[in-house]
Specification:
Layout (H helix, E strand, L loop, with lengths): L2 H9 L14 E7 L7 H8 L6 E6 L30 H15 L4 E8 L8 H10 L19
Parallel strand pairs: 1-2, 1-3
Helix pairs in contact: 1-3
Length: 153
């Protein structure tokens, strides 16, 4: 499906507060990677035993061949249709939008976490899940970086 169709479909996801059926709220873990998830064994341990409480989406470089990913891995089959990304360019934002749009198609996803291939979890799954689900805050980190690349205020 094209990006345009994907974004349209994800914008049509219902904004319903209550559903007429039981569903478990999930956290969507969205990995923006250049290649393999470097610390996948650590992530495997993190997710183990928490099936049904998370979704995983991977946007990797289109040239990356995932043939070495074991079929029993939680990362197998999680790759979304991807396009080339250059750090700091607009196509990086487009890749993030692609990840989010795919995650929005699952109505059980309630929280969304953007990660790189080098990120690691600092707490166990239940701690992170509980914190995210009980929080009403948006965790977007912004800061003024010293030097010529920082914001000019």
């Amino acid at each position: 499906m094209s990006d345009e169709e994907l974004f349209w479909r994800s914008s049509m996801v219902p904004k319903v507060k209550e559903f007429p059926f039981k569903r478990v709220p999930k956290v969507a873990f969205m990995f923006l990677t250049r290649g393999p998830i470097l610390l996948s064994p650590l992530w495997e341990l993190f997710f183990k035993g928490n099936e049904g409480f998370y979704s995983i989406y991977i946007h990797s470089d289109p040239s990356y061949n995932q043939s070495h990913v074991d079929e029993s891995s939680i990362f197998h089959g999680r790759r979304i249709p991807s396009k080339e990304v250059e750090w700091g360019k607009i196509n990086m934002v487009e890749a993030e939008k692609r990840l989010l749009a795919n995650a929005l198609l699952d109505i059980s996803n309630q929280r969304f976490v953007l990660l790189s291939e080098a990120c690691i979890p600092l707490f166990n799954f239940s701690t992170i899940y509980t914190h995210l689900m009980n929080s009403t805050k948006n965790f977007v980190e912004t800061y003024d970086q010293p030097g010529p690349s920082g914001a000019r205020v």
